[in-house]
C-alpha cells in the first residue's frame, strides 16, 4: 500500500522502531540508520524483530563522512523518524530545521514520551510513567488494589507508535498534495490522553473520579477471575443483553443478587460469588461452557497458547513465531514480512544507490 515511499529511520528504542516496522509492513521502503559497533560483524549481529522488512545502514553520525551520507538519505526520502530525547538530533545537525532545509517536502516524525516541549520534555520516563501522568492509568485495577501494570503496548504502542504512524501518513498525504513537509510531534503522553476520549464518551460512568466506580474497573462483569487450574478467564459483558447470556451460562438467571447489573453497591458481593464459582472449575472447562456464546468471556492465554488457538490459527495471525502484518487489505494478498536485516548489512548497496541517484 505504501510502495514507492522511502522512510529513513534513525535507530531508537521501543515505539519509534515499531512505527517503522508498521510502515515497512505496509510496503514502505524503510532504511534504518543503525549505530556502528561490534554487532555489525557479519554472522554475529542480532536480528531485531522490529527491523523486519527494513534495510540497514550503519553510520557514525559524529563522523563528517557518515553525516554526509545521512543528509543524502534525508534528501532522498519522503519521511524520516527518530525517537531520541529533544535536542539530540539538533546537536547532530539532523534536526527538523536542518532536514527540511535539505528536503522541504520531508515529513519528519519525532517520537518521545513527554513531547518536544513542556517542563518534562527532557526528563526520562517509561510507558507506565506516561500513562500515570496522563490519567489513563487511573482506571487500571480493581477496587482496593493498586493500579495494575498494563502491557507496554498500551502506552508505547497505543499512545506512541500508532500515533506516530498516523501522523506520518497524514503528513505524507499533505506533502504529496502541496509539496510542503511537516514535523510530527508524537508524544506518548499526548496519545494516551487522546485515547481516553473513549472512556469520557461514556459520560457519567467516568465522572465520579473514584476508582472502582466506573463501568470498566469495578463491576463484577468487567474483570478477570482465577480458575481451579491456576489459569484465568476474562469477563466483560457490558451490554445488558450480553450480561443476560453470561448469567444464563452460569445458571444464575433469575438470581435476585444479580438482577441489578449497574448498582455499584452490589458489585463487591456479586464479584465474591463469581470468584467462588469460577474457582470451582478449570479455565478450559469455563471456555467450553461459554463456547459459541455472546456472553463476552474468554480464556486468558499465554502468547504460546494464543498461537495455537483455533481462531488465531484460522486467521493465520502468527507466522514463523512472529505476528503477521496488520491491518489487511482486500487488494493486497497477505504476505510474510521479510526477515529483519543484520545490522549494517545493506550499507554498501545503499551508498551505491545514493551515488547513482545523485544524492552523494
Brief overview:
The chain is built from 14 helices and 11 strands. By secondary structure, it is α/β, with parallel strands linked by helices.
**Shape annotation:** elongated
The SSE order reads EHEEHEHHEHHEHHEEHHHEHHEEH
DSSP strand count: 11
Structural class: alpha/beta
Distance between the termini: 29 Å
Please tell me how large the radius of gyration is: 24 Å
Q: How large is the count of helical segments?
A: 14
Question: How would you portray this structure in words?
Answer:
With 360 residues, this protein is of the alpha/beta class. Helix content is 37%, strand content 13%. It has helices spanning 15-25, 64-76, 88-91, 96-102, 127-134, 153-178, 188-195, 197-200, 240-250, 267-278, 283-290, 303-308, 310-314, 347-356; strands spanning 6-10, 29-34, 55-58, 79-82, 107-112, 182-187, 222-226, 232-236, 297-299, 318-319, 322-323. The strands form 3 sheets. The chain has a 6-stranded parallel sheet with strand order 3-2-1-4-5-6, sandwiched between helices. The chain has a 3-stranded antiparallel sheet with strand order 7-8-9, with helices on one face. A two-stranded antiparallel ribbon has the order 10-11. A hairpin with a 5-residue loop joins strand 7 and strand 8 (232-236). The protein is elongated, with a radius of gyration of 24 Å. Residues 39-44 have low confidence and may be disordered.
List the helices and strands and how they pair.
Elements: E1 6-10, H1 15-25, E2 29-34, E3 55-58, H2 64-76, E4 79-82, H3 88-91, H4 96-102, E5 107-112, H5 127-134, H6 153-178, E6 182-187, H7 188-195, H8 197-200, E7 222-226, E8 232-236, H9 240-250, H10 267-278, H11 283-290, E9 297-299, H12 303-308, H13 310-314, E10 318-319, E11 322-323, H14 347-356
Parallel strand pairs: 1-2, 1-4, 2-3, 4-5, 5-6
Antiparallel strand pairs: 7-8, 8-9, 10-11
Helix pairs in contact: 1-6, 5-6, 5-7, 6-7
